[in-house]
Amino acid sequence: MIELSKGQEVAVATADGTPVRRLRVGVGWDQAPGAGALSAGGSRNIDLDATAFQFSGGRLFDVAFYNNLATRDGSVVHRGDNLTGSGSGDDEQIDVDLGRVHPPVDTIVFLVSSYQGHSLEWIANAYCRLVDDSGEGEGTEIARFTLTLGVPQTGLVMAKLVRDPDDAGAWRVFAIGEGVDATKPTDSVAVLERFL
What we know:
The chain is mostly beta strands. 2% of the residues lie in helices and 45% in strands. It has one helix at residues 189-192, and strands at residues 2-4, 9-11, 22-31, 48-56, 59-64, 76-78, 92-97, 107-114, 123-132, 141-146, 155-164, 167-180. The chain has a six-stranded mixed β-sheet, with no helix packed on it. Strands 2-12-11-8-4-5 form a six-stranded antiparallel β-sheet. It starts with a strand and ends with a helix. Residues 37-43 have low confidence and may be disordered.
């Protein structure tokens, strides 16, 4: 497993360089200590949503999120919404079958956003990880990007997958970790354009 820092990239491949065809993208977060102190009931659940946006030539092609669980080509499938971030492990997961991604799609961007409009300063231990979900390497974590600083915005562009222009079957992951003003996935497309 490779721990990525902001701005780093790595091939989506096994240790021997074989391209990985099926991925599970897991995102996780915890409620920051003290986040509940401002709410009347003493508890303030932070509802974050993971979204995968497919782009082709800089234009939105399709999206998978809590209200549209799969892209039209069936290559990206959201496993369901976690409303609180409670529990250990991944809070939300998205399956990506890179072999089924529609050929014109060249980029898949992963966004985490606060549906209720909370600043992401209220969360801690946020991460995005890529897990090999195919063949002999199934379950092996390929790469992880952990957010170490608070984000004053309501959204966070965690990472993106980019198709290799010289080899359509190969992909690379780029760690981004940039805050954006985004709450609902369907209203977030314009703020993602600068990451393409």
